[in-house]
Design goal:
This protein starts with a helix and ends with a helix. It is elongated, with a radius of gyration of 15 Å. The protein is 74% helix and 0% strand. By secondary structure, the chain is mostly helical.
């Protein structure tokens, strides 16, 4: 188990290696410090508010690593925020309308 100071110094390491052992407050701190790492390693452990925060802060990671776990409105937000990432990682998941949007935004 990491100490509070170790968690503050290396929140990404805490999320990656010992998220199951973090208190709710420690996990929340780490999520806010490293939303991309939280999406990558702890998606299932996050509260809906934490997931929304991570998606808002890092839509490209959400698309690249968690697209199948996103609600429709979350996916749409990420696609609009990062159309090139949506095309690269989620082309099969995009509707025709979304593909047109992404192509228009990336050209």
């Amino acid at each position: 188990m990491m100490t509070d100071q170790e968690i503050k110094n290396r929140p990404w390491a805490a999320l990656h290696s010992c998220a199951d052992k973090l208190s709710a407050e420690q996990l929340d701190y780490c999520v806010h410090e490293c939303p991309d790492t939280a999406l990558l390693f702890c998606f299932e452990k996050l509260t809906p508010d934490q997931v929304d925060y991570c998606i808002f802060e890092d839509p490209w990671t959400a698309l690249a690593c968690c697209a199948d776990k996103l609600a429709e409105e979350q996916f749409d937000y990420c696609m609009r925020e990062s159309p090139s990432t949506a095309l690269k990682y989620c082309a099969k998941k995009l509707t025709d309308e979304q593909k047109k949007f992404c192509k228009k935004k990336t050209t």
